[in-house]
Amino acid sequence: MNVEIPGFYYDPEKKKYFKIQANHVAPPGAQYSKESVKRKRNEHQASLAGFQPRSPMAKYAVLAANILQEQEKRAKVNQRLERETVRKPSLLHHPLMAVERELGSRWSSTAVMKERQARVYVSQLKRRKLHKFEPWPSPFNIRHVLRNPRSGALITTTLDSGPDGDSFLAPRLLPNPDEGGDYRWPSEFHHPLKIHLPQTLWCSAACPVGDKALFAIGTSDGLHTLEGLTSMWTVSQKPFRKDDSNGARGFRRHGNSSHASVQAVEWISPDVVVSGLRNSNVFLYDVRNGESSLRLQHSQSVTKIRKADPWRIVVGGHNTVCDGYLFKLRTSSHPAHAPSMQVEMYDLRYVAKCLHSKPKPMSGSHNSTRPYLSFKDFTPEEIPDLDVSSELGLLACGKIYTLPFSLLHNTSLVQYVSNARCDNSLA
User: Fold this and answer.
1) What are the pLDDT digits (tens) for 332-377?
2) pTM > 0.90
3) Domains of the chain, each with CATH number or no CATH
4) 3-state SS, one letter per residue, for the chain
């Protein structure tokens, strides 16, 4: 029996296949015209149907053949499933496997191993006094001191000297260590270089690498950078894009507005700075080309940002007005309204969606970006700092959490949790 090939016609007389051209128009009554081929095919099918057996025994024979064919097909499918199914060996159900897992002799994932190591490390934490620094030789109170990897220090003072306090930057490279390995302030350090700024200074972070000192500074009027070496220092403002920073037409800005107040900064790479604003916006700023991007919106006003790895950050926020709360901290040891702080982790690789042009974190209708992880059971009496240890997989913010699973660790430091203030002790 000849097989029908699409696009070809078999001539039983010449016993050959002839290709049917799609654009060929055969004359009426031609041997290989479309109508002729269709008529011959119908006649051939009708002739085959005329030879079908019509007796009951023949019908039963055809039915039995079909059933046998289905059984053979089902048997082949079962054999394939049996051959390709992966089964857990009975050895893994042995009771000794659980003992090996507890002893650490059985292989585990990286996240599980890091979580176990973190538990061991946290169990040994104790409160110790490592070093006592010399008093600051100045009548000004220190608000923020930051260590630079190149033995540099950025010292800032802001609003701690009263309502009319002097807001300025005091950058200074640390002197070379003496024979005993200690750093001694030189005599000229009593009158350090001071860079006065009209803005309030909220936070700062040092660039992790580089040939010269580079600091990112969050102020009440946007993001600034301080760059320089020894006595040559330059302060420059790094504005965000108008479409990202709520620069609506006709909207009047003021000095301490929530859409311009940067309260948290962190370097995720030598060229990119993460900035957290009072209105819950989190920006990425590239110092190479001056481009910025609104990446996410926190559930509260951003107060702290820490880098967990090259693509994840931990963000802390609170829902208490910052200026009024700082005033209560100076006047009373127990504030009337404790802040509700949310600590969450975000993955920067996810695409930002549903970002509002005018977020209102103090409103109940505020929609925030969905976090990667949330660290629960954290209601501090004060606004604490937070820090991340990527090597140990730990997050410290008055309590100790694991980074992979956001689990709370109980430590011997629980008696100090009520007044705990972290100062980058894990990094």
Assistant:
1) 344 444 456 778 889 988 877 778 878 877 777 788 888 888 877 6
2) no
3) 1-42 (no CATH), 108-130+384-427 (no CATH), 131-177+184-383 (2.130.10)
4) CCCCCCCEEEECCCCEEEECCCCCCCCCCCCCCHHHHHHHHHHHHHHHHHCCCCCHHHHHHHHHHHHHHHHHHHHHHHHHHHHHCCCCCHHHHCHHHHHHHHHCCCCCCHHHHHHHHHHHHHHCCCCCCCCCCCCCCCCCCCCEEEEECCCEEEEEECCCCCCCCCCEEEEEECCCCCCCCCCCCCHHHHCCCCEECCCCEEEEEECCCCCCEEEEEEECCEEEEEEEECCEEEEEEECCCCCCCCCCCCCCCCCCCCCCCEEEEEECCCCEEEEEECCCEEEEEECCCCCEEEEEECCCEEEEEEEEECCEEEEEEECCCHHHHHHHHHHCCCCCCCCCCEEEEEECCCCCCCCCCCCCCCCCCCCCCCCCEEECCCCCCCCCCCEEECCCCEEECCCEEECCCCCEECCHHHHHHHHCCCCCCCC
